[in-house]
Amino acid sequence: MLPRARPDKGLEEKKRPSFRMRLLFWCLNLVALLIAAGLTYVMIIFLQMPSLDAILHETRPAAIVFLDKNGTEIRSSNRIMGMPVSTDTVPPYVWQAIVAIEDKRFFEHGPVDMRGITRAVLTNLVHGRVAAGGSSITQQTAKNVFLSREKKLSRKIQELILSYWLENRFDKNQILDLYMNRVSLVGGMRGIDAAARVMFQVSARDMTLAQAAQIAAMLKAPTTYSPLKNPDKNIARARVILQEMVRQGYITLNQARAAAAALAPAMPAPDTNLYRYWTDFVLDETRSRLGGFNTDLFVYTTLDMNLQERIAAILPSRVGEYQGAVVAMGHDGALRAMSGGADYQASQYNRTLAMRQPGSAFKPVVYLVALERGLTPESYVNDSPFAIGDYTPKNYNARYYGDIPLSTAFAKSVNSVPLKLTEEYGIDAVLNMAGRLGVGTQLRREYSTVLGASEMSLLDLTTIYAVIWNDGASVRPYSITKITDPAGNVLYSRNPSDAIAVVGPQTVEYMTRMLVDVVTGGTGRRANAPGVLGGKTGTSNENRDAWFVGATDKLVIGVWVGNDDFTPMSSKITGGTIPAEIFHDIVE
């Protein structure tokens, strides 16, 4: 057997790859694997991305902006985001301030500003910390609109993908619109409009150059640069923004100087709880007018904000351990103020709508019947013990005055006289008069109703008196004059109906004279003040409810004091004490 020939050594070396070739091969394979892994990772992240169209068109509760009788904003409901704004609807300096400080090359670069990123990296290396950011407005928009605040590599990759998607789908102005409407700035709310309203009580469309710079200053870190919490830091950064706007040609040096002089700490927004009873009431009214709605609304109301604030300050200081409510309306029924309790934060129950016994505050209804049937304030009536069947009510102080003028019986709020008048003219005549005044359907057909035993709300009771001071013409309380959408389209407009004469002029004249006597020499003396036209007290059984309703030349004001659980108050609290004093303080 011949020996096997050994292969030629030179040929063997030529056939076997060199170490360098093998290393290159493995490196290429490794790169391919890394690329495949990276693409797989990016694909997984892409598949985990949120639905872009769904978020772009995300729904939110319709925001409702409530305005007072002068068109001043009271507060807003469901304002998670501000009202929509765009580069076309805000003053140019609003968006220019943002671009100047956040991304001055925004209109020049693509989705990512490589020059800005490089500059930020070098700056951070020099300072040894994160001293500058390089994210473009497009990237910030992607993060604000679509992504969470988590600092993860996956979120950064999604941010880059979304940035390219945004720039492919929208132009620069549209991206800037998205950014202005979605950027997080104030207490969970989003958008520069929300920030402007919270910080300066104006809309983004009405901001000054100084305010625009202060809002833009917050973009870096909303809490750190808040003009409300850290005004010094906010103003210092706003000055930098104004300088940048001059440098980039957006504004002149004189404009910057004037704006810098106007920079000031933000003032806290008014305590909107002062208006919550009112806006809750108006919201119910809005729903009754429009039914369901899916658009933002501007609701123009009849509220007098100064009067509302005055009442909200007086009421809790007067009622002490008890509860109270006040409603004020114009003689025509325009509601000017409503406070449904001493503290909205503690209880949202609106007591102006609570059904309670009005006591003697109901008696004008009976006296109107008598005046209409021919009696006058000077007519004599007899005050003496009186019973109808088992019903034997007594006067408040158990004192009887004998023969007295009708006006005196009314001013002293005796009980026997209205009962005798009712027996003479009939309970149906009293209920009919109540119906003409707007409250007849809810009253019980019994003699105790004459002395205020049938429940009614403070709003209803005040309406009865408004008819008297509206020269006997019918009154329907109203709180809304019109409702519009953000574009100004009118969705509802109050159409004042012609008032109907329900009480004759002679009867009205007599009644108003008698109401004057109550505050000048009767049970309502504590309510008397310059300009008061009269009023009437009321106290229900065991002092459970105390009332006063009175008027000035412009307002009819009703006041109630009591306990929510219907337990009696101190025997010293009547309609002529705390309620009359509250009325006095309001009108003084």
Describe it.
A hairpin with a 5-residue loop joins strand 12 and strand 13 (545-551). With 588 residues, the protein is α+β, with helices and mostly antiparallel strands. The N and C termini lie far apart (135 Å). The strands form four sheets. It has a five-stranded mixed β-sheet with strand order 2-1-5-10-11, with helices on one face. Strands 7-6-14-13-12 form a five-stranded antiparallel β-sheet, sandwiched between helices. Strands 3-4 form a two-stranded antiparallel sheet. It has helices spanning 9-15, 19-47, 52-56, 92-102, 114-127, 137-146, 153-169, 172-182, 192-200, 209-217, 231-247, 253-262, 276-290, 305-319, 363-372, 406-411, 416-425, 427-437, 458-469, 505-521, 578-587, and strands spanning 64-67, 73-77, 184-186, 189-190, 297-301, 323-330, 335-339, 380-383, 402-405, 480-484, 490-493, 534-539, 545-551, 555-562. Helix 4 crosses helix 11 (231-247) and helix 10 (209-217) crosses helix 11 (231-247). It has 21 helices and 14 strands.
Mean pLDDT comes to 86
- Give the structural class: alpha+beta
Strand order of the largest sheet: 2-1-5-10-11
Strand content: 5-15%
Number of extended strands: 14
Helix content: 40-55%
Shape: elongated
Low-confidence stretches: none
CA-to-CA gap between the ends?
Answer: 135 Å
User: The biggest beta sheet, please?
Assistant: 5 strands, mixed
* Number of continuous helical runs: 21
Based on CA atoms alone, the radius of gyration comes out at 37 Å
